[in-house]
Amino acid sequence: MTINDKIKKEVVKLLAKHEIKIKADELAVPPSQEMGDLALPCFNLAKKYNKTAPEAAQYIVDNIKPHGLIINIKNIGPYVNFLFDFNKIAELVIKEINRKKNNYGKIHLGKGQKIMIEYSQPNTHKEFHIGHLRNVCLGISLINIYKNCGYKVIAANYIGDSGAHVAKTLWYYKNFLTKTDFPAEPKERGEFLGQIYARASAKVEEKLDYKNEVQDVLQKLENNDPYYTKLWQQTKKWSMDQFKQIYQELGAKFNVYFYESVEEKEGKKMLPQLLKQEFIRESEGAIIADLQKYDLGILVLVREDGTSLYGIKDIPLGIKKFKKYKLAKSIYIVDNRQSQYLQQIFKILELIGHKNEMVHVPYEFVKLKSGIMASRTGNVVTYNEVKQVALQKVMAETKQRHADWSAKKIEETSLAIVMAALKFGMLKSNNNKIITFDIEESLDINGFTGPYLQYSYARINSIFKKLKTPFVATKIDYQALATDIEKQLIKDLIHYPDVLQEALQINDPSVIIQYVYKLAQDLNTFYHELPVLKADKDIKLARLTLLKAVKQVLHNSMAILGIPIISEM
Fold first, then answer.
1. 309, 218 Cβ separation under 8 angstroms
2. Which pTM value belongs to this model?
3. Which of 45, 236, 394, 451 has CA 20 to 30 A from 320's CA?
4. Chosen domain end from 26, 61, 84
């Protein structure tokens, strides 16, 4: 139960003593602080007691005396407004934060249910560009959100290691490259494969024969041709090594990897059984799922030449997830251009008897100022390119500010700042908004950015660092927290568990971004307006106690978002 739940419960209990029954979710925050802390609209009560809403509100005010946390009750028209004892609430929330520490905000909505979150899903033989980053950052944060809400989460990655893009790359590799064309450093070869894919996509448009040759390579791959199988295994490893290095830097972890090449074989084994379904049939040599009666169109599963499309792979994978891992729910983080396709897959699985809960979390794409990115055209900015440019800039600035730091500390701190900039930049917008990525904006320490959060956290540390002895909260006079900005910080702290629940309900971490940014803004207002170490003793202790709680909630919020925390900047 959150602090807000406890506060609402106080109102519900007080009214119940006077035989006025309401539900906690009927209570809302008034539009302005002057009205009170919680408001009860009396329209439902008016009907029940055969009164007008203003009469019902007046009746409550006339007959119920404040009690416990509630220190005042007043009515404005059809609303009853409740004012709470701020000092008691401040003590309640700060003590809870100090007691729970990293667990503050955690709730047990999931009750240990097992779910799978599938995210990232890059294609081997393509570049890992900045657009892929949005999916990874969403996955990291949603996994943390679900874990904090009491779910047991299995993190999954579905690697696109088969299909036309692989065939194109291997065709170009065989026909237009020599070994000397490849980078000498193995760690650079994964990214180079993406460049080959872009070249292959352009080259194949020159002649119809080239398209036929690529199709022939695809058939050979699916038929386990020894030459192409060996080449595929070798080049796939280059891609996977690159992906895993990127995941390590980003803090993306996976409990299980799935591969299209494996699911393709499983799908073909299932074909005879699938063809017994009325809606799955042959059509002009191809195999299709006819979903028109469900307004979902037609999905081609296998081409005329027998090569596989995505659907024939996703059907067995969808079944495997629930059968092998005993899931309550399977979540797919996939961009919104695949919404129709996933609806088709979910419907097919339902029609063949697998009525499990499957959820698509869609998101918009990332574009550059020059336009939308696409691997096949080469119009991409890779993750590594952005990271390196940003890292060089931040390292130079960090070295200038901290000439006494070791080279290792400068590099580690700079990388943490870059990761904060990238992750915040990918999460700050609603899932349904396109991101136009700008690394300069994302690194601005005074902007709506990850480094701003890090700086705010480090600012609190700098205050505690000036203390002669480690701070230990003794008897605190919470009445000393009397200014408007202190009260606002308390309200921010109370609201955190509710924000976490909201992010869970809509599968969107941007609400946490908005929350923690406001918390950091309020903290910095506090910092500029009020003295801490030079304040009178009782006020100093109260403010240090408040700052300690703010620091903890900043920490918890940033941890959920996957944003690195730095003690000094």
1. no
2. 0.92
3. 236
4. 84
